Amino acid sequence: MKTLQRSAWLYLLLLLLSGAASAQDGFYLKNGDRVVFYGDSITDQRLYTTFVETYVVTRFPKLNVSFVHSGWGGDRVTGGGGGPIDRRLQRDVLPYKPTVVTIMLGMNDGSYRAFDQKIFDTYVSGYQRIVQQLKSDLPGLRLTLIQPSPYDDVTRPPTFEGGYNAVLVRYSEFLKELASKERVDLADLNTPVVAALKKATSTDPAQAQRVIPDRIHPGAGGHLVMAAALLKAWHAPALVSSVEIDAAKGKTARAENTQVSELKSEGALAWTQFDAALPLPVDMNDAVLSLSVRSSDVIEMLNRQRLKVTGLAAPRYQLKIDGETIGTFSAEQLSEGINLAALPTPMAKQAKAVHALTLKHNNLHFAAWRQVQVPFQDDKSANIAKAIEAMNALEAEVIAEQRAAAQPKPRRYELTPEN
C-alpha cells in the first residue's frame, strides 16, 4: 500500500512539474537567469523589486532565478552618491554577470523643473551610453528599460504649469524610441500608477495622497502597482490555480495548474488540492495598499486562484482549508467562482512568509554592499573581504530558506453546509 501511495505522489509531482513548466513557457524570465534591478532611490526602496521577486519565487517555485537590487538614491544617468556611472556599473552591475537588467532612471534627471532641452540632452546621451556599455560588456543580455514612475501631480496641484510628471512622460517617450531602436524591452511604470491615483482620488482623496506621500517615492501600494506593470511587460501569468468541482456528480470538472484528489461528497464536500504555485501575498489590512489594489487591476493581472463549485444543494457553505475557516459563501457565489488569492488562506500565509525572507535576504545584500563594501573600498584590511564573504554566505542561506518555503503543499479543503 505504501509503495502505491508513493508512486501516486510521484506521478502527481511529475504532473505538477509538467504543468509548472508549461506555465513558464511565455514568461520572460528563464531557468538560470540572474536579474539586476538598477536605478535611483525608487529602486533603492526595494519595494517594487521585492514584490517582483516574491511573485517569481512563489509563482514558479521550481524556477532557478536570482535577484540583485542595485538602486542608489539620487542617481542620474551620470551617476550620483554611489559614484559616477562608470563606477556604478563596474561595481554594482557587471560583477554579478546578469542575464537580465532593468534600468529605471529619470526622476532626478529632469531636475524637478519644467522641461529643459539641455538637461534632456544629457539624459538622452547618458542613457544611450549606459545601454551601449551594458550590451557591450554583457553579450546576450536582456534589457528592460523602465519608463519612470510618476511625480504625483494628481492628488495635489502641479508646482508649475504642466507639472513635473509631464516632463517624465516626455522622457518616457524617448525611452520608448530607444527601446525600439536598440531592440530591448520596455515597461511603463508611469501610466498605470497615474491611473490608480486618479481612481483613488475619486474614492478617497485623503488616502490617495498617501500612495506617493512625498510625490516622488511611492509607498507599498504604489510599488505593488509598479511591480504589476513590470511583470505585465514580462508576460507574467495571472493564474495561480483554477479548480471546478461538480458537487452533484462528485467529480472534478476542471483543474488547472493543480491536482485534485481524494474527493468525497458524502456529508461535507472535501478534497485534497496540490497547487503548483502560491498566490502573491497582498496585505489588504494596509489601508493605502488596499486602496491602491482597489484602484488598479493588480489582482486581475497577477493573482487569480479560482475555486468554482456547482451543484450544491444547501444555500450557504463554510469553507475550511487545513482546518482553518476561510469564510462563508452562498451556493451562488461558489457556483460563479471565488478568488482564493484575495482571502486569508494557508497558502497566502505561506506566501507572506516567503516575502519576509525576500526582504530579509535583500536587507543582507544591502548591508554587505552599502555598509561594508562601499564605505571600506579603500581599506586594505583582509577582514573586509572576510566580512563580505560571511554576509554573502548568510544571504545564500536565507535564499535557500526562501526557496524551500515557496514550495507548495497539499491542502485539505472542506465545504460544509450551514445549518
Structure, described:
The protein has 419 residues and is α/β, with parallel strands linked by helices. It has two domains: 25-237, 3-Layer(aba) Sandwich (Rossmann fold); 238-419, no CATH class. Helices cover 45% and strands 21% of the residues. It contains 14 helices and 16 strands. The chain has helices at residues 2-24, 41-44, 48-59, 85-92, 117-137, 164-182, 191-203, 205-208, 220-233, 287-294, 298-302, 331-336, 346-373, 382-405, and strands spanning 34-39, 66-71, 79-80, 83-84, 100-104, 142-147, 185-188, 239-246, 251-256, 258-264, 269-275, 304-310, 316-321, 324-330, 338-339, 411-417. A five-stranded parallel beta sheet has the order 2-1-5-6-7, with helices on both faces. Strands 10-11-16-13-14 form a five-stranded antiparallel beta sheet. A hairpin with a 2-residue loop joins β13 (316-321) and β14 (324-330). The radius of gyration is 24 Å and the shape is globular. It starts with a helix and ends with a strand. The model is unreliable at 1-23 (pLDDT under 50).
